[in-house]
Amino acid sequence: MYAFTYERPATQADALRLLKDGGQALAGGQTLLGSMKLRLAAPGQLVDLGGLKELSGIRREGGAIVIGAMTRHADVAENAEVLAAIPALARLAAGIGDKQVRAMGTLGGSVANNDPAADYPAALLALGATIHTTGRQIKADDFFQGLFSTALEPGELVTAISFPVPKRAAYVKFPQPASLFALIGVFVAQFDDGVRVAVTGAGNGVFRHQAMEAALASNFSPDALAAVPTDASQASSDLHGSSAYRAHLVGVMAQRAVAQALA
């Protein structure tokens, strides 16, 4: 690691001041600290958000579940409100990394990092979530902007995320064995006004699969997706799987997700 200073502010105002002065926000640290150890990142100052208690917690607000940005994956996985209202989101959280990662990693950190194979972005996009920040509210459709890129401005913090409660939903992923990131992950959510399908792991970032959404709006069943293609030219290719393989997996994971949602 390169040399850096460390701050743990007690208030959100102090955190924003430090970030405005050039500090780097530290949430769960599951990506940032690893990057620092490899000398891929060299922030001069870390601003630990762990002391901001107002950024943690889970509550039901009308037709939505609101989760604080500093809420740990393990807490999302085990929370009674989430399990009752959006069990697919709880199962997604329970499948992130290993036990140690789930004990430290945070919802807001994952969302702000926007790894192209992360699980949470698929949930946000499929559920039509709203990202609350220190200055505004951003729809998930407008938030994710490609590889490790989001609509967040410098110094802007995610404070909470609001997830509308669907009629039914499910998330199924084919995990990369070493990291447990999604080689392909598909989150399917059905609402009264339609269906949303989000795919992670296929390319440079999470995206909605509109052809699948249209097919499921007419017939919410695995069979409705059997003939719906995924464009392999838009998928990534590496040692873990070719673009054609990833495109094929999108269809398989989507059908399994629908079946799970109906179970």
Q: Percent of residues in helical segments?
A: 25-40%
Query: Could you name the CATH topology of the domain at 168-262?
Result: Enolase-like, domain 1
Distance between the termini: 48 Å
CATH class of the domain at 168-262: Alpha Beta
Outline the biggest β-sheet: 5 strands, antiparallel
Shape type: globular
Q: Main sheet: which strands, in order across?
A: 4-5-8-6-7
Please report the number of helical segments: 11
Proportion of strand residues: 15-25%
Task: Please count the beta strands (DSSP E, at least 2 residues each).
Answer: 12
CATH level 4 superfamily of the domain at 168-262: CO dehydrogenase flavoprotein, C-terminal domain
Radius of gyration: 18 Å
**Pattern of helices and strands:** EHEHEEEHHHHHHEEHEEEEEHH
Low-confidence stretches: none
Structural class: alpha+beta
The pLDDT mean sits at 95
Short note summarizing the structure:
With 263 residues, this protein is an alpha+beta fold.
